[in-house]
Amino acid sequence: MPTALPHLSTPRLLLRALEMHQAEALFTLANGPKIADNTANIPSPYTLETAQGFIAGTAEKYRTGELLNLGMHVRDSDELIGIVSLRLNTRHHYGHLGGWVAAHCRNQGFAAEAASAMMDYGFSALGLQRVGSQCFGRNKESARVMEKIGLRYEGCMRQAFLKNGVYEDLLGFATVRDDWERRL
Question: Is Transferase tagged as a keyword (predicted)?
């Protein structure tokens, strides 16, 4: 497995490691509408210290084979608009996609573009056998992104996640290497 954080390109995005000078931008974006509410691990409020710790730990988490986090940057302006991640289970050759897009950039295809690039990297460079993801049952936008990039709906785990005192349904989506290779 590679140990240096990759730089991935899509037609409109550069996916690359965040730098410490971007902590303020990350802090601002992560406190935007629906970010913490629609994700499992983003605290609310999201502090500047949280942003700095996130950025500081990114390279080590990838080097140890645990997690790949990349910032979504608009190619033309280098503006940070979100995060895309791949939580890795190297023992089972599995990657779990995650991420979010800033409110002002939603519904423009950026999430699908970034997630598709991350999924391709997982299969091609990391040798994954399976890539999957989950979203809350109420998060139709994320479900749409997962289906758009070729993940198949695998089912609903009813009341499987406690979020802000409410039990949330989790929708599961995934694809395997054979299906990914067929679509190329």
Answer: yes
CATH number of the domain encompassing residue 58: 3.40.630.30
Residues 101 and 80 sit within 8 Å (Cβ to Cβ) = no
Q: Which domain holds residue 120?
A: 8-133
Q: Is residue 113 part of a domain?
A: yes
pLDDT in tens, 10-61: 999 999 999 999 999 999 999 988 999 999 889 989 999 999 999 999 999 9
Does residue 156 lie within any of the structural domains? no
Residues in CB range of 57: below 8 A, 6 or more apart? none
What is the DSSP secondary structure assignment for residue 151, as one 8-state letter?
A: P
Residue reference for tokens 């210290």: 49
Looking at the domain assignment, is residue 104 inside a domain?
yes
Structure tokens at 7: 């730089």
For the chain, which ranges sit under pLDDT 50? none
Is the whole-model pTM more than 0.90? yes
Residue 139 maps to a domain: no
Provide the domain count of the chain. 1
Kindly calculate the radius of gyration of the chain based on its CA atoms and give it in whole angstroms: 16
